[in-house]
Amino acid sequence: MGGLLAQGIPVTLSIVSDDAGQFNVFDHALCWIHAERIINRLIPLNDEHVKAVDGVREQLWQIYRDLKTYKLAPTASQAEDIKLRFQAMCSTPTAYATLNQALKRMGNNQQELLRVLDKPYLPLHNNLSERDIRDYVKKRKISGSTRSEAGRRCRDTFASLKKTCLKYGLSF
User: Fold this and answer.
1) Are 114 and 83 in contact (CB under 8 A)?
2) Helix axis angle, 32-40 relative to 47-72, nearest 10°?
3) In terms of domains, do 66 and 135 share one?
4) How confident is the model at residue 94 (pLDDT cuts 50, 70, 90)?
5) Residue 14 lies in a domain
6) Average pLDDT over all residues of the chain
7) What is this structure's pTM?
8) 115, 150 Cβ separation under 8 angstroms
């Protein structure tokens, strides 16, 4: 990090991550897709839990849609409304204790999840970045990595070339 700062990278650089600790640097923002996964992975035990989870997911995706609209033409009143609805969603108890814990965690991450209110140019998720490395991760898992540094550099170079060609519609 010191090297990046010495090269002139501003401290205000924003990083959008999935909440992995190693990415909690500079001006940290969280991915909404990853935040929702915490709620999506819950296993409701009864109809009351199902209703609570569905209700929270609807509120969450409505806030997400409103954030997308906000990014197009931000206003202070919109930002305040979104912030208040987010706080209400995270602080309103449900009949499902595990959902309440997930909402509490989400509420603790409010500043990073709502970073886009201060910086509307930020993306709401990091799925494009994750999609870029998905092929590489699958290959690494299957092959068990490389045997040498030269092999790693070769694999990384060709993976990068392949993705770049695909993005520009060129034959790899």
Assistant:
1) yes
2) 170
3) no
4) very high
5) no
6) 80
7) 0.64
8) no
φ, ψ (nearest 5 deg) of residue 97: -60, -40
Cα separations in angstroms, 82 against 18, 30, 110, 123, 163: 21, 16, 11, 16, 36
Asked, for residue 95, whether it belongs to a domain, the answer is yes
Based on the domain organization, do 102 and 147 belong to the same domain?
Answer: no
Tokens of 64: 């997400």
In 3D, which of 99, 62, 101 has the Cα closest to residue 82? 62
pLDDT at 111: 85
- 65 and 88 both lie in a single domain: yes
Q: Residues near 88 by Cβ (< 8 Å), separated by ≥ 6?
A: none
34-50 residue pLDDT tens: 778 888 889 999 999 99
Answer whether residue 1 is part of any domain.
no
Tell me how many domains the chain contains.
Answer: 2
Residue 151: domain span: 127-167
Tell whether 58 and 104 lie within a shared domain: yes
C-beta separation of 91 from 106 below 8 A: no
